[in-house]
Amino acid sequence: xxxxxxxALYADPETDGGRGLDTGASFLAADPAADAELRRRxxxxxxRAWERGWQPADVVRLVRRDLGETHVRxxxxxxxxxxxxxxxxAPRWQAQLTEIAADLEADRRAGTASRPADRFSYxxxxxxxxxxxxxxxxxxxxGPVPGTPVHLPAADGEPRMLTRIRAxxxxxxxxxxxxxxxxxxxxxxxxxARHSIDEALLADRAHRGDVPAACRIGVDAPYxxxxxxxxxxxxxxxxCRSVWNSAFGFSTVVGFEPDLEVVELLHTSLLVQGxxxxxxxxxxxxxxxxxxTKTFRQSFLMAYAHRVGERLAAAAEQVTADxxxxxxxxxxxxxxGRLLPVxxxxxxxVADRAERMFPETVRTxxxxxxxxxxxxxxxxxxxxxxVSGSGSGRGIGSGSG
Length: 401
Hints:
Layout: H1 2-9, H2 13-16, H3 19-30, H4 34-51, H5 56-66, H6 69-83, H7 91-110, H8 119-134, H9 160-174, H10 178-206, E1 213-218, H11 224-237, E2 241-245, E3 250-255, H12 257-287, H13 294-328, H14 339-357, E4 362-363, H15 372-384, E5 397-398
Antiparallel strand pairs: 1-3, 2-3, 4-5
């Protein structure tokens, strides 16, 4: 059995022409007793990935990009089984595990969760997955490794403010009436910015000693450069920093936990809005007899990200100025003139954490905006978008992360 794994997993695929994979799969397919060892090694490879900084959503995303849906289902099954070893995990881990379990259940109900028809195909699929897992390099950790002590917050559910913001954004995305969308977005924007400020002042008054955290957000093809720029704009407006890892299809966002939650929520909403607006713009172009291509879509999304960033930054500055003015006048709270120093201290802490996590990030010049009409339509769509955000990383970052 060791010979099978050695042949399949450790031979150089560029020199052996795939013979090692075929040999290993043949050995394993011929021995039904090998199934338990095959599963055990898969869980071992997953634990190695966790120790090297990877999280379940990262692994699933990479498997989907580099292999296929059969490999994704196998990965999800392995993750679900391996996770049973842990009594408790960090909240972001638990959210990822819950989503993976839901996807598995949906596959079962749809009848798409079956394994390859024969043992050789199953062994080949499994070994292809294990090759990918073995090749995962160490990346920056954004949370505790499962099995280590985890501090869990009080189980009070999501803050009411975030629940209200989530509901407002969902309504804004779904309405066909611009006036209603603008009214919903204005309220969501106010709540989101105020939520960040209130959390900062509360942490200061309670001397909680909060420190910046980090999370990873997928940045998927196509048009990943524009999507990474959009995420960076959202992060910057919410006093976070974003670093894009183009090789693995994600950005790492560094910030205080309440701000990270807002970044995840707002980025998802704006990406949905931007994609829908791009689709409508293309339909209008086709109706007028003009055929648009990838350059139109790329330019559209780049312009959309650029303009949304400007709007978010302006909104954040205005809300902060209003809150600071109200505080000074004794109208808006009990911060005692602490707001601006508190926010400045948090921005310094975020910058320090990001620089320690990513000491070798590099900046790149963005190219690809070659369609003037795409840029114009993208800018107009950004002006109509329901922004709701209220600190920056690599303008667009790529580096060791």
